[in-house]
Every structure is written in structure tokens, then in C-alpha cells.
Amino acid sequence: MDFTIQHFIALAPLLITSATIIVVMLAIAWRRNHSQTFLLSVAGLNLALLSILPALKVAPLAVTPLLQIDSFACLYMALILVATLACVTLAHAYLGDGATGYPGNREELYLLILMAAAGGLVLVSAQHLAGLFVGLELLSVPVYGLVAYAFFNKRSLEAGIKYMVLSAAGSAFLLFGMALLYAEAGTLSFSGIGQALAATGLPSPLAQLGLGMMLIGLAFKLSLVPFHLWTPDVYEGAPAPVAAFLATASKVAVFAVMVRLFQISPVANSGVLSTVLTVIAIASILFGNLLALTQSNLKRLLGYSSIAHFGYLLIALVASKGLAMEAIGVYLVTYVITSLGAFGVITLMSSPYKGRDADALYEYRGLFWRRPYLTAVLTVMMLSLAGIPLTAGFIGKFYIIATGVESHQWWLVGSLVLGSAIGVFYYLRVMVTLYLIEPNLRRVDAQLHWEQKAGGVMLLAIAVLAFFLGLYPQPLLTLVQQTGLAG
Questions:
Q1: Cα gap 217→212, rounded to integer Å
Q2: pLDDT tens digits, residue range 320-356?
Q3: Which residues of 249-274 are buried (b: 16+ CB within 10 A; e: fewer)?
Q4: Which residues contact 358 (CB under 8 A, 6 or more apart)?
Q5: CA distances from 238 to 141, 235, 335 (A)
Q6: N or C: which end of the chain has fewer CB within 10 A?
Q7: For the whole model, what pTM was predicted?
Q8: Biggest alpha carbon distance in the chain?
């Protein structure tokens, strides 16, 4: 294959992210400096984000049979890079500086986050099972290290080992499923598999088994019921910025490639597999919301809540026509914004590093009287996650319901409404806790270091964005409409 300058322009986001990884690695080897590593990472991610604009001009373009850079890939690349930027900013505030900060080496955290982001970029542009697997492993392996980064904390180490073992099991299912699909279709490219399956009408039992095993592997990464058991423990044990990365960039990448696989091979979404997806969606919505009801730990609560949110997203995947692609794009953008805001508040409450994260609900009692700005941000995020009107989350939920109604998926719409009603209860419980008045409570604004101020400014911007998109969603809708798979 002849590489032209257009191919390099199309690949620019991935190439710049990879170059940033090398620069950061050399900078760490030369001289350990926390702020320098942070600034290099942020500069590289911003450049990668800006390079998406010229990449859009040459899209759609196949770069080798493995990657397809089109407007769909560009939208999700941008989403992953924005989420990574936010997580890097939060990590800088979390790790702190000097005697008050994290006691171990700080710089490698940025290196691992950048590597995982590069894996996400490969994943969203994959059009071939080999590209999918390379991207998935490049995303997953650094995350094992990130989750266990606070290794002297027993919970963090336990979370890292749990995630590694279960993720490896998920990857094994995925590989076996790919092998079965290849045996049936004779090709590894998504479009080739789609054509081979369409030629035979209904997929053969072998192809259905292969697709089913691949679905199990991807459902592990998305923590869908019944493959969700690792989620609350890993979210609780992981350092707060890492949990934010896991909830946003990591899951967006996996869901985007799943959408591409199902859209290019529409036969995959018919028959038994469609029924299985419907059952998984309903189970994820109900189990996720019901288990979140009993939580007194904010990270675990957000973990169970994310299970329910990806259950909602499956509704659009099952519908897979009409508004479905638009709904998925809108929902993922609003979900990323609100999750970053919620985990961002936990991060700033937990730093400088004190041995464990401030994730127990009782630590947030009366937060309004101590940290009013953080309380305002968390309140907006909880309202948005609950899907209350005038917040970004409402627009996302509205689109998912519209998609379900349009394709007559009444069971799924019913479970979404029921799940949302349960969700409102535990989100409101968190909000009420923030405004409780403790006996002898005095209003004190905590002293912040400059890194935390940077994180705080970013959180306020996220809260404003969540409100703005709830009031005036048109820019987001236009952006998503222009970047469907057809684009």
C-alpha cells in the first residue's frame, strides 16, 4: 500500500499521541519533574485534538485494511482525547506536589494514561478484527497498572489484580469468537464479515456462536450484566482520576467499536443475538439501578450507575436504525461530561493524597458549607445523571427514548423509564447529603493549591457545559448528525 501525505494527515491524532508518549518517556528518563511531565502530556493531547480538524478534511479514508478514518472515528477520537485531557488535569491535582502529595513516583501515571488513550484511538477507527484486538489490548494493559497505581493501598492493589484477571478472561472470549467468525466468513474485516453473513441469509450457528463470544468479551469491558461483577470493586479501589478514565474514555472506545461492528454487519444484529442484547440491556438497567440504591460509597454508586447507563445505550444499539446513531452519539457525549464532573469532585475532595480517596458518602455531609463550588458541580452532575430537564443528561435520555419508541421496543422503553425512576432516588440522596447541616458546623473554604485550582476551574466549566447543552443542545445535535457512520 502506498502511503501519501493524506494518510499521515488522517492518522495525525494517533501519531501525535504516540509521539507524546515517546517524548514523555524520554523526559522522565532525563529528569523527573511532575509539572513538566504534566505540561508535556497536556500539550501533546491538545495538539492531537487540534489535528482532528485537518483529519476530517481528508476523511473518509482507509489507512491500511485495519483502520478507517471517517467522521464517526473523528467524533469519538475527539471525545476520548477530551476525556483524557480532563483525567490528566485531575491526576495533576490528585497527585499533588512536595510532602503533601502522592508518596511514590508520579510521572508514570501520565505515561500509562497516554498509552491507554492511544489504544482508544486505534479502537474507534478499527475496521478489522485484528485492529480491534490491538486497540483493545493497548487500551487495557496500561489500565491494569493505572488501577493498581496506589499499590501501597490494599484496595487499589486488589482492584488491579481483579481487573487484570477478569479482563484477560474477557479477551480470551473475544479471541475465540474472532476465530469462529473467521472460520465461517474467511475474512477478518468488518465489511467482509458483513457480506459473508448477508450472503447466507441468517447467520449460521457457528457465526452466531462467534458473535456471541465476541459480545461476551466486549460486555466485560463495558461491565454489562452479567459480566459486571468487577465494576464496583475496581471503581472503588482505583485512584479517582483513573476511575474517571475507566468510566469515560475506556468505555466510549469499546462502545464505539461495538457500534461500528454491528452497523457494518447488520445481520449480526438479527435473530438470537438481538434477543440476547435486549435481555442484557434490561438486566443492566434494572440490576445497575437497584444495586446502586444500597451503596454508601460514592465511587461504587457511580460504578453501578454506569452499568445502567450502558444498558440505556444498548437500547439504541438494538434499535440500530432511524435515530439510533444520533442517539448513541448524543448520549455518550452527555455521559462523558457528567461522569468527568462527578469523578472530578471526588478527585479534588481526595487530594492532596491522604492514603485513601474521599469516596464514603458521610464525607460529603454538609459539603455545601465547606466547599460550595464543588457542591454546585456535584449537584449539577447528579441532576444530569438522573436525566432531569435543563441538563445535558435529559437530552441524552430523551433521544434514547425516542429511538426505542421509533423502533417499537416497548419492553426496553419500559425498563428505561423504570430504571430512571429508581435512579432519581439515589441521585437525590447524594444531593440531599451535600446540604445537610451538621451540629457545630462552621463555614470554611478549604485552602487550595494551584493544581487543584486548575482542576476546580475545569470542573466549573464542565458544570456550565452540562447546563448549556441542556438549555441549547443544537450545536451538539448538529455535530453528531454530521458524524454518523454514513459520513
A1: 9
A2: 776 788 888 899 999 999 999 999 998 888 765 566 7
A3: bbbbbbbbbbbbbbbbbebbbbeebe
A4: 346, 349, 350, 364
A5: 15, 5, 20
A6: N
A7: 0.92
A8: 74
